[in-house]
Amino acid sequence: MPLLEPKPEVLRPGAARTPSPDRVPDVRATGTPEPLRGELTALLGPEKVLWTVSDLVKYASDASPYRFVPQVVVVPEDIDDISAILSYAHGKGREVVFRAAGTSLNGQAQGEDILVDVRHHWAGIEVLDDGARARIRPGTTVMRANATLARYGRLLGPDPASAIACTIGGVVANNASGMTAGTTRNSYRTVASLTFVLPSGTVVDTADPAADELLAHAEPQLCEGLLALKAEIEADAELTARIRAKYEIKNTNGYRLDAFLDGSTPVQILRGLMVGSEGTFGFISEVVFDTLPLDRKVSSALLFFPSLTAAAAAVPRFNEAGAIAVELMDGNTLRASVSVRGVPADWAELPKETAALLVEFRAPDEPGQEAYERAAAAVVEGLDLVAPVASVTNEFTREAKVISGYWKARKAFVTAVGGSRPSGTTLITEDFAVPPSLLADACESLLRLQAEHGFDAAVAGHAAHGNLHFLLAFDAAKSSDVDRYAAFMDDFCRLTVERFDGSLKAEHATGRNIAPFLELEWGPKATELMWRTKQVIDPDGVLAPRIVLDRDPKAHLRGLKTIPEVELIADPCIECGFCEPTCPSHDLTTSPRQRIVLRREMMRQPGGSPVETGLLDAYGYDAVDTCAGDSTCKLACPVGIDTGAMMKDFRHQRHSPREERIAALTARNFKAVEASARLAIAAADKIGDRLLETVTGLARKAVRPDLVPEWLPEIPGAAPRKLPRTSRVGASAVYYPACVNRIFGGPEGHRGPSLPQAVVAVSARAGKPVWIPEDVAGTCCSTIWHSKGYDEGTAVMANRIVEAAWGWTAGGRLPLVVDASSCTLGIAHEVVPYLTEDNRELHRELTVVDSLVWAADELLPKLTILRKTGSAVLHPTCSMQHLGDVEQLRTVAEACAEEVVVPDDAGCCAFAGDRGMLHKELTASATAKEAAEVNSREYDAYLSANRMCEIGMDRATGRAYHSVLMELERATRP
Q1: 705 pLDDT exceeds 90?
Q2: Sign of the CA dihedral 883, 889, 890, 891?
Q3: How confident is the model at residue 676 (pLDDT cuts 50, 70, 90)?
Q4: In sequence order, which residues have a C-beta less than 8 Å from that of residue 373 and are 6 or more positions away?
Q5: Are 111 and 97 within 8 A, CB to CB?
Q6: Is the peptide bond prior to 35 cis by the omega test (within 30 degrees of 0)?
Q7: What Å distances lie between residue 593 and 139, 222, 409, 428, CA to CA?
Q8: Do 58 and 598 contact (CB within 8 A), yes or no?
Q9: How far is CA 301 from CA 179, 339, 356, 396, 403, in A?
Q10: 376 touches 341 (CB < 8 A)
Q11: Residue 677 CB contacts under 8 Å (≥ 6 apart), including other chains
Q12: Which pLDDT score, from 0 to 100, does residue 128 have?
């Protein structure tokens, strides 16, 4: 065992705990039982079978209010694996549930037996017919697909609020729609063809001209059964009329019975039935969408009304004016949205009865936009709007940033409101639709019903389509709260069906919480046809039992998850999963959501239980060590939960007092450490990579892998010992070369000035000379210590750099330009909690400027571009995302290259200072998709603005990345 291996029990929750009734029982501590584990391992290979208790727990929770612990999780790579799993399940009498993003809100991605992860190996998009169609794999997020399609002026019809995280497979399987899709742009209407695997293992490609012939040969009984059901439905005029009427408004409750009316052959019927089937009919392995035009001329307004009913009453007028989206938000939703970055703070003061409509018009050209704006103005003129707080304008705007802020607030409905719920409560998200003409009445009735049952209203929805969402929070550990929820659901479902003839699920799909009410909405005849359809397609009941069809009237009360309190920073989490696509480790170990899910299960357990011990044993590497600490999860999370910060705190808790002292000592003596590091790098050039890899590998085994970096061949040579000579006299700014740029040189083979030389030269050319202080050696942004959780070392260096910067900049009179984005972030923001009160005052006087902003805003307007490279690919770093500097990176690059590309799969490289040297598998996993995209073609330049990230991308791609400021110097060199 390594000398300094941390002890897992350090992270054992210390608070007194009452074991939760839904805790994982001790018998599950050993994970997947035999022979299930052994048989699936033999069938698929050990790397595709996740079996530890930690694996099972982290997959047990999703965005829904339910929690079911699977027996095993399998991660198939291709259709052959899927067929093998289904064949195994048939032979052994087991059940299978498919899970992709885990953003479904009704428990349809949760299973109690074999859970199949179909996200990891199932991403990809192929653009067809110049963007008119797109072939998309099921693990691709909607946002990722639309990013590619945007280059062709196209987009997908479905646009759910969870587009950042939800995947195509789930969108089609739920027939999710969203803000603008309604009943005409959803998956059912825009899917051109599907490829899917039936429960029997038969693969069907509905685009194949011979598909029906092949299906009839492989599944004759299935074909006969489907055609018989079709004939029965069509022979019943009353039922046919009822089915057509049910889909005049949004409806995802139950199976798409209109598929029997719309399809004339078994394959066509199956194509319709698969949409909205929630994984109960088969696995969708590929989808071809008919895409829609991306109308780029956008006008939007956020209009405030004195009441929810007043807002609802205005909806039909905007529909008539041609609005593509009319979104409703009540007062609770608006106030809770204050937690979302960019939302005006004064929304917190809005009266509770206030409501708002987010109205948007989209046009392909300027004349169309102007026509829509005139129509919108005519509607607004006849409305009684209110402006309860100063930020409210009640005006239409074309400004993209403002519009983006409106949508960010709207899309954060579930997470922002859910994040502000009382600690320890479970969140239920309901979704229903009524005829749009009855929307105002439905709003009044819903508010009244919620009040009767003691629930605080939080209502939002796609008002243009009569589709409302509302949230309920209660404590699932209290039987009285569960009873209250059950009574509400009974009354709500009867109200929706009997008074409004509405849909109990408009776009979230039936799931576990509406399955018991399916017959209430559809009636016994149609419901029985759904049961018979399931029997025809999946006669053995292998796929997703109890998800859509369940005769248990209390099925929606089974498996409700408790939400035990955890660390304050993570406690608001509703496990929505928005953070997962941005997380560098989500394909390797755990995501931010899973880190919190695992922590919550520890809190459910009695202290010292076998399950808690098993979770702790895995948590050190899976959660703490392999967290890049980049905090991009905070940017993706609508309520700003920074799981990276929590992991850094856990790292701190694992440190011994001796480790903390040593870390602080390195900070106090960093000038010597810096010089030694530069000498070591220089010496390494003469020793050779293989020997260095061997030596550092042995040291890692002897000491601890999370403390000793591994030598990587991509590590560049040493930086010049001396920095460029500059003068303080006449300087426009103080230039602070980050310690990584004082230690590491440029990429191998680079000819030309170093980064500090380039920054000095290009600043001088622009008439903005910079000064490098003579005493920068021995200073640092403190990220070295902060990222590892060394609080004392962080405090030492944070205070040193702020005191030095204040002096260098003459008390803040000059800006401090920093040439590494992570260091800019560190000095500008991350040092603050570690400063003394006096130094916080000094810090407030500093203006810290990233070199990208300096170049784009101050230098470029005064420079003459003399030469351009042909093409450049960019790597925007996570620090740039935090700082908001990505556009400046693009601006500088576009000045230097004829063609500039940001990969659609660009994300955090996870090199994270030296974490890529501590856990090189983390960077390999985090960069795999971006690297594949980058290497799909040749570029003339590979650009970023952070040396360690550039090294990480060098390793990932085999290309030589360098700072965009070095490229700017070349482009402007006389």
Answers
A1: no
A2: positive
A3: confident
A4: 299, 361, 396
A5: yes
A6: yes
A7: 18, 40, 21, 18
A8: yes
A9: 15, 21, 10, 4, 8
A10: no
A11: 743
A12: 98
Give me the percent of the chain exceeding a pLDDT of 90. 84
First to last CA, the chain: 59
Contact, 469 vs 413, CB < 8 A? yes
Q: Would you put residue 427 in left (φ > 0), alpha (ψ -120 to 50) or beta?
A: beta
Q: Which residues contact 623 (CB under 8 A, 6 or more apart)?
A: 589, 590, 594, 595, 598, 647, 650
Which pairs from 405-410 meet CB under 8 Å and 24+ separation? 405/342, 405/343, 406/300, 406/302, 406/358, 407/179, 407/358, 408/340, 408/341, 408/342, 408/343, 408/638, 409/329, 409/334, 409/337, 409/340, 409/342, 409/343, 410/161, 410/179, 410/327, 410/329, 410/358, 410/460
pLDDT for the residue 732: 98
pLDDT for residue 919? 85
CB neighbours of residue 247 within 10 Å: 16
The alpha-carbon radius of gyration of the chain (Å, integer) is 29
Per-chain mean pLDDT for the chain: 93
List the beta bridge partners of residue 770: 733
Q: Could you give the CA distance from residue 348 to residue 341 in angstroms, rounded to a whole number?
A: 13
pLDDT greater than 50 at residue 525: yes
Helix or strand run (H / E) with residue 735: strand 733-736
With CA atoms as reference, report the closest residue to 594 among 53, 58, 57, 73.
58
Q: What is the pTM of this model?
A: 0.94
The three-state (H, E, C) secondary structure of 184-209, written as one string = CCCHHHHEEEEEEECCCCCEEECCCC
Considering only residues 39 and 340, tell me which one the structure prediction assigns the higher pLDDT: 39
**842-845 contact pairs (CB < 8 A, 24+):** 842/802, 842/803, 842/806, 842/812, 843/802, 843/806, 845/806, 845/811, 845/812
CB 879 within 8 A of CB 909: no
Q: Tens digit of pLDDT for each residue in 258-280?
A: 999 999 999 999 999 999 999 99
Torsion 582-584-589-595 (CA) sign: negative
